[in-house]
């Protein structure tokens, strides 16, 4: 195998794969590497493949795009865990005060913690270090700082939709982005 093939395989194997429950409910995103592994372990069926192939000396394989579990997983929440990373994702890695996209990013409590602002989707936003320091322990109103958009709770569907690019159009029906027929 050439080094070209190895590096090409490497990036393809990191491609995002949509994992569905047995009832087609979207569960998570995994890497193509993991999806292929699950397939060989007979844990999943491959519903849709990308057009891109990975090559080993003996096998050529189209990489999976959407896979479905063979055994149902009990997972009754569409809630997305509240985490720094998911707040950054929601805000598209953009400071919600000045629009700066270059990091490092921080998490700002709109109503400061010291003033009983909670750790909630509605009270946490992405801020650049500069804006976070300037704002300090004050509210945006006190500082005359406006938020670019009102922070809202994100659910898992929003989360999945962020992975949908030009190569993931096949995912759309599974993510309620268009009708299933
Ligand atoms: Zn900023």
Index terms:
181 residues; alpha+beta; DNA Binding (I), subunit A; 2 domains; four-stranded mixed beta sheet; two-stranded antiparallel ribbon; binds zinc ion
What does this structure look like?
By secondary structure, the protein is α+β, with helices and mostly antiparallel strands. The chain has helices spanning 3-13, 32-40, 84-90, 129-135, 140-143, 156-161; strands at residues 16-20, 26-31, 44-55, 60-69, 105-109, 124-128. The strands form two sheets. A four-stranded mixed beta sheet has the order 2-1-4-3. A two-stranded antiparallel ribbon has the order 5-6. A hairpin with a 4-residue loop joins β3 and β4 (60-69). The model has no long low-confidence stretch (mean pLDDT 89). Bound molecules: zinc ion. Zinc ion binds next to β6 and α4.
Quick structural summary:
The chain is α+β, with helices and mostly antiparallel strands and 181 residues long. It is built from 6 helices and 6 strands; from the N terminus they run αββαββαββααα. The structure holds zinc ion.
| Relative helix content | 10-25%
Number of domains: 2
- Principal-axes geometry comes out as elongated
Q: Tell me how many strands there are.
A: 6
Q: Biggest sheet, open or closed, and with what strands and sense?
A: 4 strands, mixed
